[in-house]
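FW: tagging you since you asked about this chain on Friday. Here's the raw sequence from the shared folder, copied in full. Didn't touch anything.
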Amino acid sequence: MTALALMVGFNIQPISQSEVYSKEQEINKTNFKLTKEYLRNFPDDEYIIDSGDVMEIIISRDYPELTTTVTIDGEGKINLPLIKRVYVKGLTQEEMNNILNEEFLSYIRYPEVESSILKHRDI
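HL: got it, structure written out here
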């Protein structure tokens, strides 16, 4: 490649990885200022729940006995205390939490469903 560069008239000088990193940091500092607004920068494409995901679902912190760990089965369903088997495949976590809040209102006062993905499905 050096011979080709000399024939065309370029002088290519190899640089170290640390020099590359230093240049990247310099560019990032001049082109981007990190502010507290970054903390509210949520991605538009939220994770979609699907078969194989393992989740912890907290129905209400006032009722710790209703907290459960579930695996989304091949049909996209989970089993939850009180409401039994429900279909959640294709929802975002926020959508699922909101729907489960509505459903649990029939069973407990003030549900505040929280969920977290403990293990993502294999792709």
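FW: The chain has three helices and five strands.
HL: agreed, and Residues 1-7 have pLDDT under 50 and may be disordered.
FW: great, closing this out.
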